[in-house]
From TrEMBL:
Record PANTHER family: GEM-LIKE PROTEIN 2 (PTHR31969)
A family per Pfam: GRAM
InterPro entries to which the protein is assigned, alphabetical: GEM-like (IPR037848), GRAM (IPR004182), PH-like_dom_sf (IPR011993)
Similarity annotation: Belongs to the GEM family.
GRAM domain segment(s): 170-247
Region named Disordered: 1-91
Name used for this protein in its record: GEM-like protein 3
Polar residues biased stretches: 1-19, 51-66
Naturally occurring in which organism (per UniProt): Nicotiana tabacum (Common tobacco)
Domain of life: Eukaryota
Start-end of Basic and acidic residues biased regions: 20-33
């Protein structure tokens, strides 16, 4: 019996399935894995959302309450853990100072810092002023001589002589006649004004006199010969009448000290390396003379 058109017989179906079995693609296992992972991720997201919503509900239910220890004026100090001290060698405790201690007083601390900085600034200012004065006095000292180079070399030679002789006190006693009880108070490098020009030397102030001696010998004529001699000035304190510091009107850096004896002899000293110290020392010597 003939089969209707369009209906495949069992034999035909077998042939078709045999011919096309190789053409049908095999199922890929990866979609199943992706689907499993997607399900896991979806479950995790759901759990997270559920947790957040639960936390939100818990937060909304929280209430604020103050501890009794926090509202007390003087809370009881809590004890330190005792276990850490024995088990951890890097943990140590030291007693804290009381609240009334000066270390906790910020105002006192700031005042102390201000005081220290103020004193330090004052000392720095004084040191700077002294350095400026010394620099200015040194420059003026070197300019006072007829030659800047000769003045510098003269100061170096004088310093070498002082070291070799053992100090100004020994030079003073070797250069001038002294009495046993006489003591050298101070010495100052300077110039003595003379008719021949400024003479570089050292002014000594002792308990008995003012004495000046030139660093180098000066030449003078004796008949037909040229002689050399150190220039010296000695004024006993009981013969000292006045000490007058002054400066040039046209050049204030040029400062002088006028000494006047009781018989009105005047001596002008200039170019001091330590002008302020020299003036103070000379005035003190004059006051000591007046007290005698």
């Amino acid at each position: 019996m003939e089969q209707p058109n369009g209906v495949a017989t069992e034999t035909d179906q077998k042939n078709i399935s045999g011919q096309d079995s190789d053409r049908i693609p095999k199922p890929d296992p990866r979609p199943d894995l992706e689907q499993i992972q997607l399900q896991d991720n979806t479950a995790a997201i759901d759990e997270k959302q559920n947790g957040e919503s639960a936390n939100g509900l818990n937060k909304s239910k929280k209430s604020v309450s103050w501890s009794e220890e926090l509202v007390m004026e003087s809370p009881t100090p809590r004890s330190m853990p005792s276990d850490d001290r024995g088990s951890n060698p890097y943990v140590a405790y030291s007693p804290a100072p009381s609240d009334n201690s000066s270390s906790f007083n910020i105002k006192n601390t700031m005042e102390s810092v201000k005081g220290v900085l103020g004193r330090w600034g004052k000392k720095v200012g004084e040191a700077t002023k002294k350095a400026e004065d010394l620099a200015g006095n040194t420059w003026q000292h070197l300019k006072t001589g007829p030659s800047l180079a000769d003045a510098a070399l003269g100061r170096i030679a004088q310093g070498t002589k002082v070291l070799a002789e053992g100090g100004y006190d020994k030079i003073f006693r070797q250069t001038f006649e002294t009495v046993p009880e006489e003591q050298l108070q101070n010495s100052f490098a300077c110039y003595l004004s003379t008719s021949a020009g400024p003479v570089m030397g050292v002014l000594y102030v002792s308990t008995a006199k003012l004495a000046f001696c030139s660093d180098n010998p000066l030449s003078y004529k004796a008949e037909d010969k040229t002689e050399w001699s150190y220039y010296k000035v000695v004024i006993p304190l009981h013969q000292l009448k006045a000490i007058n510091p002054s400066s040039s009107r046209t050049n204030p850096s040029e400062r002088y000290v006028q000494t006047i004896s009781v018989d009105n002899h005047e001596f002008w000293f200039m170019g001091f390396l330590n002008y302020t110290g020299a003036v103070n020392c000379l005035q003190e010597a004059l006051q000591a003379r007046n007290l005698v």
